[in-house]
Design goal:
D-Amino Acid Oxidase, Chain A, domain 2; binds adenosine-5-diphosphoribose; 2 domains; alpha+beta; FAD/NAD(P)-binding domain; eight-stranded mixed beta sheet; binds P-hydroxybenzoic acid
């Protein structure tokens, strides 16, 4: 079998890339290790920047998003119970949309016409410095797809980045000493907008998926076990970390999903190796505090799609040559913002009382400075591509 592009991974990055390519007449097969149902069962974040909304429209997959997505004109920050709203609309005339990553994935799956091979085992990348091909196992047989380019959209634990010789790759990493314990519940959100809260006992986030489904998180130590957290323990801890009025208004219920996600900052450089490209979580990880993971994956694949379309349509290598440097510049800015939001809002046992005073000063500065609020708003709603 032959395809112009082989995409490894059918998460949002792989599916979006595949869709943009198929609309431009470039053929791309997607190889995914898991089943479609498994991919749709993953609960992930759900805040879309304007650029990601625009990309869903370009992919002709934005219809349901416009119907069901919730436009948010701002977010609320809270520090030891003191609130500060960041009004995106008033500060910079922009907004974000709350629409779950699971829904983005579903819409892209539905829109896709071309082949996605699910449950492709033992995917291996070959000869991406010369004549690339990809092999995988399915039904006891090994299959081979020859191609011009390979796109590694297979997430942090995928095979693509691991296939690159260690000497060709530089990685930058920061692992935080805590994770987020998240609960999904069929109850209306406690507030119209998201609340990011700092408390001496740790960070908390009130998020949402729809007018009837909420997503809440609390910071927990990195080695915490989810089994140690009954629903009632979770709700009690969350209430403590919110201001009293919000805690009072919180509608609790039986969790429909509960899990702990570690927090990590990670970037690989470069993102092109001959005829192999990395995009999305395969290339970088951000802590979820700035809601940047999905949006970065979207801006990577928009750039990669344009580069590949130019290559096949106009025989131009300018786009593929520029891809890595271009997307890394935006990636590092999102890394910086996600690290900053994380640093402001979490508790860091090692920085002690001094660290908390610095965080308080940062919060007070933000509360009193339009410039600081504009900076947050600009980064949160998405820097230009
Ligand atoms: N072979 C084939 N597929 C693989 C392999 C492999 N060896 N390893 C991983 N995959 C698949 C995974 O099963 C997954 O479906 O690649 C896909 C990668 O999808 P994501 O992890 O969702 O990554 P990405 O598409 O880059 O999306 C980034 O996901 O983790 C969030 O915060 C992140 O929102 C961001 C988004
Ligand atoms: C979520 O709804 O899961 C969510 C929202 C905003 C974040 C992180 C996660 O910053």
């Amino acid at each position: 079998m032959r395809s112009q592009v082989v995409i490894v991974g059918a998460g949002p990055a792989g599916l979006m890339l595949g869709r943009l390519l198929e609309l431009a007449g470039v053929d791309a097969v997607i190889l995914e290790r898991k089943s479609a149902d498994y991919v749709l069962g993953r609960i992930r974040a759900g805040v879309l920047e304007q650029g990601s909304m625009d990309l869903m429209d370009r992919a002709q997959a934005g219809q349901r998003m416009h119907q069901e997505g919730l436009i948010h004109q701002g977010v609320e920050l809270s520090f030891d119970g003191d609130g500060q709203r960041i009004d995106f609309a008033a500060l910079i005339g922009r907004h974000v949309m709350v629409y779950g990553q699971t829904e983005v994935t579903r819409d892209l799956m539905v829109a896709r016409q071309a082949t996605t091979i699910y449950e492709a085992e033992d995917v291996e990348l070959h000869d991406f410095d010369g004549n690339p091909f990809v092999t995988y196992r399915q039904g006891g047989l090994t299959h081979r797809i020859d191609c011009t380019f390979i796109a590694g959209c297979d997430g942090y634990h995928g095979v693509a980045r691991r296939s690159v010789p260690a000497a060709a790759l530089t990685t930058f990493e920061r692992v935080y000493p805590f994770g987020w314990l998240g609960v999904l519940v069929d109850r209306p959100p406690v507030a119209h907008e998201l609340i990011y809260a700092h408390h001496a006992r740790g960070f908390a986030l009130c998020s949402q998926r729809s007018p009837t489904r909420s997503r809440y998180y609390v910071q927990v130590p990195a080695d915490e076990k989810v089994e140690a957290w009954s629903d009632s323990r979770f709700w009690d801890e969350l209430r403590i970390r919110l201001n009293p009025a919000t805690a009072e208004a919180l509608q609790t219920g039986a969790s429909i999903e509960k899990s702990i996600a570690p927090l990590r900052s990670f970037v690989a450089e470069p993102l092109r190796f001959g005829r192999l490209f990395l995009a999305g979580d395969a290339a970088h990880i951000v802590p979820p505090t700035g809601a940047k993971g999905l949006n970065l994956a979207m801006s990577d694949v928009a750039a990669l799609a344009d580069a590949l379309i130019d290559f096949f349509g106009e025989h131009s290598v300018a786009g593929i040559d520029a891809y890595s440097a271009k997307v890394l510049s935006r990636i590092w800015k999102a890394e910086r913002f996600s690290w900053w939001m994380t640093s402001l809002l979490h508790t860091f046992p090692e920085t002690g009382a001094f660290g908390r005073r610095i965080q308080r000063a940062e919060f007070d500065y933000l509360a009193g400075s339009v410039a600081a609020q504009q900076s947050l708003a600009e980064n949160y709603t998405g820097l230009p591509t």
